[in-house]
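Format notes (please read before filing issues)

Several people have asked whether sequences and structure tokens are stored in separate files. They are not. Every record keeps both together, in the order shown below: the sequence lines, then the token lines. Line labels are part of the format and must not be stripped during preprocessing.
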Amino acid sequence: MTIKKLLIANRGEIASRIIRSAHDMGIATVAIYTEPDSNSPYVRQANEAFKLETSYLDSKEILNIASKANVDAIHPGYGFLSENYNFANQVKKANLKWVGPSANAIKKMGDKLIAKTLSEKAGVPTLPMTNNPKNADKIGFPILVKAAAGGGGKGMRIVRKQKELKDAITSAEREAEGGFGDKRVFLERYIAKSRHIEIQILGDSHGNIIHLGERECSIQRRHQKVVEESPSPIIDYDLRNKMGEAAIKMASLLKYESAGTVEFLFDEKTKEFWFLEVNTRLQVEHPVTEEVTGIDLVREQLKIANGDPLSITQDDVEIIGSSIEVRLYSEDPGNDFLPVTGKLIAFDPCEEPLVRWDVGVESGSEITPNFDPMLAKIISYGEDRIEAANKLALALEKSHFGGLKTNRDYLIAILRSEEFLKGNTTTDFLNQANIKDEINLTKEEVLLTAISASMWVQGKNRNDSEVLSNLASGWNNARLPNQEVNFDYSGEKILIKYKRNRDNTFSISDGKKAIIHSWAPNFIDIEIDNSRLRSKITYEKDLILINTKSGDVLFKILPKFSVREEKAPEGSLTAPMPGKVVEIKIKKGSKIKKGDTLLILEAMKMEHQVLAPNNGKVSDILVSKNQQVENGEPLVILD
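Then the structure lines:
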């Protein structure tokens, strides 16, 4: 049976990515979605789409849809059901092709404890570990608590002291249970300064297995990858072959089919590497391998699922140039990278430099707390690593998107940093490199941007006017005060006063002169004291998003008359994000110390601790366990 129609059991950017390759092969596609995703781009891109009444984890409903749509195969993408061996078996029993490795391989590698045993059998070294907390001292601190049946940073905690171990295990178990339906965790030696190297493998049902070189994914935050690249700046030809052979040994023992990744921890000083895990699915970072090898991994997965032998041998694999990927998240780097929800009022990727955008959003998308906060992956390719980094940073700067906080400026700062460009990208990079978390504009640049925004506002007022619209902006027949616009920029108030001159120029109150060369509802071309600025503009309600040479700046237009806002109760600690209260660790009347964990919120599939800002006493607890809270909602009152 040839695959003619494919159901994608996933959402967002990976669903769009799979649809793209399937359509390129002439394969019709079927999307599934829940209510929050009803307007997502991938739903429109597929040939057909069906609404899920439950969730993306409901295998029974997904298989019912597959039967109704009369599909030939199911591709699980990554996350959700992609590493669920029961689902893989169910797909096979339904006489459908499963685009992935065998259920047996998924089962063995989905259990990291079994995977480590198999690694030792293959002669690949592993880090010291135990599944008994009483043996923690034998491993030695710091220790990494890891979910036995998961990945993606979920169910992982670094523990530096014995007294922190119990709470870390409890939290990791809860997160693992919620993310993978399996609360088992184990303890492994944590190596703070190393490199995270992974080898991409491909195997078919005819016994052919090859590797496609390595990716380096050392730059991580909360055990989630932020920047990935291929090839690694530290791995040479001989090491690549050595690690590739180790990966193929593991895959051969599993009789591995489809795409997969064998992950290693690498010490560049000793040249030692240790097996970490096998991801039995497509990786989020697979595009960098595609860019340097020219091999479409989704296409290969579909051909393998169809029963075709690999069309390439190991000798055919050639790594040319360099590729870097960054993950764009809706999160606030200035607030401990907490996830952010809200409306993406603009999403307009630049046309050049030419980079690859794997996206799951568009202008107007609502970012909810229901899913992972990743908005897109942006991937560059260059003749060498420096070119790839510069191209990616410039593309991020020139693109116009925002309306809510993202990590875009943080990513640009990483790509521009000397340490990154030198290739000093060990796993402690983010702790050592002192990366700026926000766009680095001077006061003068902020002022010029605010003047541009104010001139755009006056143009909009003229454009929208239904009374005397033929008169120039600011026209009057009396001596009146200057016109003004008051902005809020990251908590700072900026007042721009201006008046229009007879020659159609504008005088700004600080002595600057502005000339509007061109105005449009989404653009302004303005000259301020001989400095020419051309900016894309997005306006929604009281927000103005304006593109600068360094990225986007978001201004909020303040009302002319202030409105009294409701204040939270005095002494209250408020929710830093929308989420669900999963644990309350205090009682009314409890004495607390600065840094104590008061309660734990779950948002976007991850847990976040709410810490005491200072010493004190719990006067009142305003929420209960399992309660949903909004951003800024009072949680507890502290004396």
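For reference, the curators noted about this record: The chain has five domains: 5-99, 128-189, 196-432, 443-557, 572-638. The radius of gyration is 27 Å.
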